[in-house]
Design brief:
Order of helices and strands: HEEHHHHHHH
Strand order of the largest sheet: 1-2
Radius of gyration: 21 Å
Number of strands: 2
Number of helices: 8
Shape: flat
Largest sheet: 2 strands, antiparallel
Length: 140
């Protein structure tokens, strides 16, 4: 009983589960938006990356799920002829990328990216990495 209560508290805190009629059902898979953005941008020419990044952010940070889908499909239709591979990458799991918009806004930041967790791991690696010190050689 205690384990079930703890699991429910954790799931509610993270905002990742959707409970219906007492059974836990996932509301969908949520890929990390930071990584998805990098995957899309690496398929574009450097000169268009900055402009496209702002357009993709408009899609990912829409005010609602339906609006995000609409903006995403418009963006894909607009650029699919010029940047085919990037738009295919965006189209592959657009709906999954916008899953976090189905939850309350208080949970959005936690759900949409795993970067915060990865930054913690990266900081730990950075602090434990040994950097050699270059000292002048003393000739005997």
């Amino acid at each position: 009983m205690l384990q079930v209560a703890v699991e429910q508290e954790v799931e509610d805190f993270l905002g990742r589960a959707h409970y219906q009629r007492g059974s836990r059902q996932r509301n969908g898979k949520q890929p990390c938006l930071a990584h998805k953005m990098r995957n899309i941008l690496c398929k574009l020419p450097k000169k268009i990356e900055k402009e496209m990044k702002s357009l993709i952010k408009q899609v990912y940070y829409a005010s609602g799920y339906e609006e995000g889908l609409k903006l995403g499909h418009e963006l894909i239709a607009r650029f699919k002829d010029r940047y085919t591979s990037a738009m295919e990458c965006l189209d592959v799991n657009l709906a999954e990328c916008l899953t976090y918009l189905k939850f309350s806004q208080a949970h959005w930041k936690v759900i949409r990216t795993s970067n915060l967790l990865e930054l913690t791991f990266g900081e730990g690696k950075r602090r434990t990495k040994v950097i050699p010190v270059s000292l002048p050689r003393v000739l005997a």
